[in-house]
Every structure is written in C-alpha cells, then in structure tokens.
Amino acid sequence: MSEPRENPVVYVKDVQKHFVASSRQESEVKALQRVSFSLESGEFYVLLGASGSGKTTLLRCVAGLEKPDEGEIAIDGKPVFSGSRHIYVPPESRPLAMVFQSYALWPHMSVFKNIAFPLRYGTHRLRGVDLKRRVDGVVELMGLTEQIYRPVTRLSGGQQQRVALARALALEPHVLLMDEPLSNLDAKLRALLRIELKQLTRRIGITTLYVTHDQIEAMVLGDRMAVMDHGQIIQQGSPWDLYKRPHNVFVAQFLGDMNLLEGTLESLDFPFGRVWSESGAIKVIPFENVKQGPVRVGIRLEDVVLASGPGENVMAGRVLDRHFLGEAFLYHIQVGNTVLRLRKTESGEILEPGQGIWLYLPPERCMAFTSEKPKDTA
Fold first, then answer.
1. What is the pLDDT of residue 50?
2. What strand order describes the sheet that includes 70-75?
C-alpha cells in the first residue's frame, strides 16, 4: 500500500469491517481487511470488484451508513471515524452526498420537488429564492430544464439517473459517492452516460468515489482505480497501469481477456526474462516478485499478432474456429497442447478454420506471473 497523498480530501487507513454470517454459529465474514487509500481534490477514484468483494461496504463506511470495527476515515482533514479514538460522525454531518443504484427517487414528486426535498428538510435548509436558485442551477447543469415539473415516473431511465445526480449535487458536497448508478440502464445508454458523467465531474471539479463491477466503466471513468477481492485492495493505480502492468493473474484477468501459458522462468536479464514452455522459449517481462521457476505467461488477445515465419517469440499454430464480433474476429488457435485466442480487426486477411499460421508474441507485451491459479471472477 502506497503512502497517502499530501492533504487528501478522503483518507482511509486500515479500515476493517466484520459481519456475523450466522447467529447460530457466531461465524464472521471479513468484509473489509485493513483497507487503505486516499483521494486528492477533484479526483475520480473507482472501486472495482465482483459481488462480495467489499467495494460497496467500503463506500458505505465512507458515507457513514456502516460503522467500521477498526481503522481511520477522514474527510477534508477532519476525522469522521476513528476506532482508537471512538469517533463516529453520522452520515448527515459528513460533507458528502451519495447516489444509489436504485436512484431512491420519490415517485409521487416532480423533478423539482425531488431535488428540493433534502434542501428543505436536511441539515442545510434553504427556502424561497435561495432554494429555487440552487435547484435551477443543477437542473440546468444536468439538462433537465424541460422536465423540471414533470413527475419522475414519466422520465426515462437516463433522465431519472440525472435527477438523482442533480439532487446529490444540489447539496454542494465536498465528496460525491456513487454506488453503481448506471447498472440499471441498457448497455448503449450506459456507455453514453458514463462519458457525460466523466465530463461533468471534471467540469465542476468534484472529488468522486465510485463503485462498479463493470471493468470497462471503471477504466473509462477512473483517474485511479482499485481492484478489490475478499475485502482487500489487490492493486490500485491508473487504469492504464493496472491493465498493462497487473501485479498478478487475478488483476490481469479481471480487467480483460488474457491468454495464459504455463512455463518455467529460466533466466532474468533486466528488463526481460526467458521462459521455457512446451511451445518453445518466450521472452517476457517478469512482474512483481517473480523468481526463477514455474510461472504463467500472460498476453492480451489484441497483443497477439500474425507473423510470416519462425523467429523469436513466434509459435506455429492452426486455426480452430472463427467468431465474428462486429468490429473484429475472435480466433481460437491450437498451439501445441494450448489454445490461444487472437482478436483481429476485420480489415486485412481473414483466417480460415484449419489454416496453419505463425503467431508473434511481442516480448514487451508478455507478462510473467508467479504460477498461481486464477481466482473465480464471475
């Protein structure tokens, strides 16, 4: 775990949270295990993980909706939870707002009344002109001016998501928390709104903590992201770093398709190493704590390229089948006892089942990991 950045807006250190799984057996589920991270001003930070990884529990601890067992949480330099100092600040007294997966809109109210409700009855109450000015401002920001007096039940899913976000922003929070706010939308609308959301948060400069199980969403939105599993942050950094330089097979596979070959790392000559596999020698980049011995070599599907003949990091293969994906073809290639996958755009040569080919695995794209079995990412 890296050291927190200077003067973070959100600071989380060694947070732990356990739940009782069965009242009869008194067993515990370790939902969070000494989790630490920090957010700087204006940063969009994404918590990514499968169901049960602890990402929503962590978000709820920051929000104050869950009380951790141990650890420290501070917002704007002020502690809102401390297990050692017995500090717990309730959600309504924390300078943040939250957008839920279900949007949590009042169906009998109009757009205006939904946005105005927490301003009228919350801790920072507004009335009259001040209230209308605040609501009008976020309504215009979210492009809801024409729908402002329409019942929310008559809005589309995308418009309802905008109302939920407008209601949160109307509170003028220092930190915006979002729990899978796009998951109820269809794929096309979700893709459009994630771009809108990124542009909006950057334009207003709000610090955002976002939870999702969608890998593409995390990489599109996040300035930084953290991959979580079993209540722990496995790796955090920029989306590019995590995709291109994952610390282990779990992170590598969770962030996208990857070919894996078994082999033995026989030599290290920085920055490359040489792995012997059943298909021959492979020049690779060894990652975190990889030593000589059994390893798994990973390479992304889009990084495998066709070659004209034998050479370094070139393997002979035969096309097993071809699948049309729209923007590309997916091929399964038999290489020795291993099946490699190749994703190739439809422009250029189209490979036929049964065709013999040569595959080149660029050394700088081949990642060597310790030989561990991948965890289930379903």
1. 94
2. 27-39, 10-22, 70-75, 78-82, 87-88
Q: Which residues contact 26 (CB under 8 A, 6 or more apart)?
A: 20
Structural domain boundaries in the chain: 10-244, 259-370
> What's the pLDDT score for residue 378?
34
Please give the CATH topology (third level) of the domain spanning 259-370. Answer: OB fold (Dihydrolipoamide Acetyltransferase, E2P) (2.40.50)
| Residue 355: partners with Cβ closer than 8 Å, 6 or more residues away | 318, 319
Superfamily of domain covering 10-244:
P-loop containing nucleotide triphosphate hydrolases (3.40.50.300)
Q: Are strands 356-360 and 314-324 parallel, antiparallel or unpaired?
A: antiparallel
299, 367 contact by CB (below 8 A)? yes
Distance CA 302, CA 250 (A): 19
The distance of Cα 294 from the centroid of its chain, to the nearest Å, equals 30
Cβ atoms of residues 118 and 167 within 8 Å = yes
Q: Which residue has the higher pLDDT, 139 or 349?
A: 139
- Note the Cα 35 to chain centre separation in Å: 16
Enumerate residues 6+ apart whose C-beta is below 8 A from 297: 260, 261, 262, 263, 275, 277, 282, 284, 366, 367, 368, 369
Residue 374's pLDDT band, with cuts at 50, 70 and 90, is very low
